[in-house]
Amino acid sequence: MQTYDFVIVGSGSAGSVVAERLSVNGRFSVLVLEAGGTDRRFYVQMPLGYGKTFFDPAVNWNYKAEPDPGLAGNADHWPRGKLLGGSSSINAMVWIRGNPADYDEWAAEGNPGWSFADLLPAFKAIEDNEAGADEWRGVGGPVHVTDCTRIVHPLSRRYIEAAEQAGLPFNPDFNGKKQEGAGIYQISTRNGRRMSAARAFLRPAMKRPNVRVETTALATRILFEGVRAVGVEYEQNGTTHRVRAGREVIVSAGSVAGPQLLQLSGVGPGNHLGGLGIEIIHANENVGRNLQDHVGINYTFKGRTATLNQILRPWWGKALVGAQYLLLRSGPLSMSMNSAGGFFRTDPALTRPNMQLYFQAFSTVIPKGGERPILTPDPWPGFSIGLSNCRPTSRGEIMIRSADPRDPPRIVPNAYGTEHDVAEMLAAVKFVRKIAAQPAMTEFIAEEVLPGPSIRSDEELIQDFRKRSGTVYHPVSTCRMGPNPAKAVVDPRLKVHGLHGLRVIDASIFPGNIAGNTNAPSIMVGWKGAELVLEDHR
Which of 90, 141, 292, 506 has the fewest CB atoms within 10 Å, measured from its CB? Predict the structure, then answer.
C-alpha cells in the first residue's frame, strides 16, 4: 500500500480547506479521496445554475429522507454535493457565520478554543470581503465574498422597507456587530462565478507536488490496527484500493457520509452494527445521532408589476440574461436565489434571533421535473418570503441500512418533533404575513398564492407548514464534538473518542446548529481543524 502522511476522505467545504492547510508547508504528503467527479461544469460555476444541479445525479447524491410524520408524512429530498467542493459546489452561496453566542455555547459545553472570540481570527483570515475590512470582516483571504448591495433586484429594497415597518431594523452586515435585522445577503462568488471550497482551497493545493486528489473514489471503510486508524479502503472504477495514513485519517465527508463511513468501519452504535454483521472496532452510540437541521417554508405572493419571473421565464429573457452572464459575468445568473433576508426573534424575551428570513424576487410554485425551476419560474409576477428555524430542539439520526457502502443511509430528520419547534414556526409564519401586510408590500401585492388567504387559524397554519416545509440543507451534529465520550463522537481537538489516528473535521462535529447558513462555518471548521492537526504534528 502507498503511504501518505494524511488521508482525507471528502473534498467538500471542510475537506478542501484541510487539504490546503496541511500541504502548504510542503512537509506532509496529502491524499484526498472524493467519491464524485470534477467541479468544472458550467452550471456548477454559474451561481444561479444550481437549480440545474439540484437533482443532477452526476454532481448530487440525491438522498431521500424517510417519510417524516412532522412533515405530514413527506419524504424530503436531501441534496448533497458529489463532486470536488462537495456541497459548496451546489449550494445557494449565502455567506453567514452564525451568531457569536452560538459558538460561545460550544465553548461553554466544554470545548475550549471554540468560542466566537477564538474563531473570529479564522473567519477573518478565510475572507476576502468586497465590502472591506473592519473589526469583524477580513480581506485578502481565499474566499471572495461579494457585496450584492448595488446589484440586487429593486423589490429586495421594498422587502427591507416592509421589514422595518414591521419592527425589524435594517442591518447592513449580518456578520458584523449584530445579526438581528433585515438586509442584503453577501454571497461567496467572485467575478460572477461560484467561490466554492474547491476553487478557493483545493484547486491551489492540487498544484503542489505533495497533494494527490483521486476522484470517483468511494471510501468503503477505514482500516484499523487495533484501535488505531492506519488507512482507508476505497473503490474506483470497479477496483478496490488500499492506502496507508502515516499520521492520521481525516474524515471530512459531511454530516451524512461521515457517520455512514464510521459505521461501515465498525465505529458506531454497537447493537445496530452488530445486527448488520459489522465487526465492532469501537462502540459509540452517538455516531449518526443528534442530527440537527434547519427546516424552512416559503410564503409566495403574486405582484402587481414585473418581478424576475418576467425576465427569467420567456425565451428572449433567457437569451438576454444568458448573454449578460457570458459577456459580462453579471445579471441575475451571477447571483443567489436569496437576494435579501434577515434574522428575527419570535419572542422578545429571547437573547438572540431564532429565525432566518429569505427573500426571493421570483416564484416557483409551478414545479418542473428534473430540476429546481429557478431558471423557469412562474408565468405571472411572483416573489417569495421564506424562513427557517435557527436552533430547533428536534433531533434525528442517520444510520446505515446494510454493510454495503453503496447503499444510501437511512435519514430520519424528525422535523418539528417537539412542541417547541411547532410553536416557534407558528409564530414565525405569522411574522412573515406581518411583513407582507406593511404598506411597502401591500401596494405591490396582488394576492397571497401560498398558502393562500383561506389558511388563517393556528391549526390550519400548522397543518400547512407541516405539509409544505422541508430541509434548507444544513444538517449537522451527527459526529458531534464534546469532552464526554458518552455524549459525543469527537473531543475538542476533533479526535474520535476511544481511537487513535482518526479525526472528523466537517459540519458533523457541530455541538449544536448555528443561526444561519452552514457553509461558512463548515469552512471555518476545516481551517480550525487543520490548525489543530498541525499543532499535533510539528
Answer: 141
**H helix intervals, 11-153:** 15-23, 42-45, 50-53, 100-108, 116-126
Q: Which three cell numbers stand for residue 316?
A: 428572449
CB 473 within 8 A of CB 65: no
- State residue 183's pLDDT score: 98
Closest by CA position to 309, among listed 372, 378, 369: 378
Contacts of 38 (CB under 8 A, 6+ apart): 83, 84, 215
Query: Which H or E run contains 529?
Result: helix 519-536
Looking at the predicted structure, is the pLDDT value of residue 375 above 90?
A: no
**Catalytic residue IDs:** 474
Architecture of the CATH domain 149-184+295-389+416-468: 2-Layer Sandwich (3.30)
Residue at 424: amino acid letter? E
For the chain, the domains span: 1-144+193-293+397-412+473-538, 149-184+295-389+416-468
Distance between CA 430 and CA 164 in Å, rounded?
A: 16
Got the DSSP string for 396-433? BEEE-SSS-TTSPPEEE--TT-SHHHHHHHHHHHHHHH
Cell numbers 492506502: residue: 243
The answer to whether the Cα torsion of 35, 189, 116, 183 is positive or negative is negative
Cα–Cα distance, 479 to 461 (Å, whole number):
34
State pLDDT tens for residues 254-310.
999 999 999 999 999 999 999 999 999 999 999 999 999 999 999 999 999 999 999
Helices (H) and strands (E) in the chain, counts: 16, 24
CA end-to-end span of the chain, whole Å?
A: 25
Q: What pTM, to 2 d.p., does this model score?
A: 0.98
Q: Which CATH architecture has domain 1-144+193-293+397-412+473-538?
A: 3-Layer(bba) Sandwich (3.50)
